[in-house]
Amino acid sequence: MEKRTLGTSGIHISPIIMGTWQAGKRMWVGIEDSETIKAIRSGFEAGITTVDTAEVYGTGHSEQIVAQALKDVRSQVVYATKVFANHLKYDQVIEACDRSLANLQTDYIDLYQIHWASGTWNSEIVPIAETMAALNHLKQMGKIRAIGVSNFSKVQLEEASQYGRIDSLQPPYSLFWRKIEPDLTNYCLEHKISILAYSSLAQGLLTGKFKRDHKFTEGDHRVSNKLFNGENFERSQLAIEKLQPIATHYQTTLGNLALAWLIFDSSSRPQVNAIAGARNAEQSVQNAKAAQLKLTEIDWLEIEAIGRSVTDFLDDTPIMWDFS
């Protein structure tokens, strides 16, 4: 799989990134550690050499599973993890990083990200200057190689950038969820910040496997996802029906068509990489194939227009879930 440079860091990442929220098990159902380890390993063997995790995914369990899957090939992979919003004071950032290093069984983290800005999820307000000072210190020590932010607005990203180099932004971004356009995408293009898009398949909706009569298992957090409810869900079903002939033309899956649309390389948009989770080895190998799918610009624009039949009707709130 052809690699890309993360921001200006010199770190080479795969355009398809292994997502491991599910590896933490919390808020997911039917997840088995042994299958997750196989999924991560199979993804690596298929060319997915970048893995994204976070301390909050199962309180470190996801990070530990990543280590079990990849510790023997550590030098060949890129680890991205995150510090949560309740650990953004200077000493807390240092301590959180050390815990993640232990969980990942490594002496450095390639990309360390602020998961959510302070104040979110009822966390204490911490000046971004204090958090960035800790991250810059970790970078100087060699414990982390690059700094990223996740779920930041343009204003928050601009403020963080005053205190150190930000090489990546991790937002929810997919054909069916495009809240970062155009303000954040333009800013990232101008400042050479890579985008690591999570929920790149709209939590599986873009695979086409969730039909109109789908019933979620108790505990599945997708029941709170705005895209899976009401008129949004119906519009997505109609859009998927229109995407299917394009996928058939390219002899690919709906999911890989959506991933290929997301990572499409164009000088008019920032570098976008797709985080895609997998429950098993087969899904990992399938996701990796999206990197080989080369869309024409005409087809990319047609897919974009189909996606807007969903996104144009969403409300203005930037968070995908309604956990209330």
If you had to describe this structure to a student in words, what would you say it looks like?
The N and C termini lie far apart (41 Å). This protein has 10 helices and 10 strands. The strands form 2 sheets. The protein has an 8-stranded parallel beta barrel with strand order 3-4-5-6-7-8-9-10, surrounded by 5 helices. The chain has a two-stranded antiparallel ribbon with strand order 1-2. The chain has 324 residues and is an alpha/beta fold.
Report strand %: 5-15%
Please give the count of helices: 10
The end-to-end distance, rounded to whole angstroms, is 41 Å
Helix content: 25-40%
Residue-averaged pLDDT:
95
Main sheet attributes: strand count, strand direction, barrel closure: 8 strands, parallel, barrel
Order of helices and strands: EEEHEHEHEHEHEHEHHEHH
Shape: globular
Element layout with pairings:
Blueprint: E1 4-5, E2 12-13, E3 16-19, H1 33-45, E4 50-52, H2 61-70, E5 78-83, H3 90-104, E6 109-114, H4 128-141, E7 144-150, H5 154-161, E8 168-170, H6 183-191, E9 194-197, H7 230-249, H8 254-262, E10 272-277, H9 281-288, H10 297-311
Parallel strand pairs: 3-4, 3-10, 4-5, 5-6, 6-7, 7-8, 8-9, 9-10
Antiparallel strand pairs: 1-2
Helix pairs in contact: 1-2, 1-9, 2-3, 3-4, 7-10
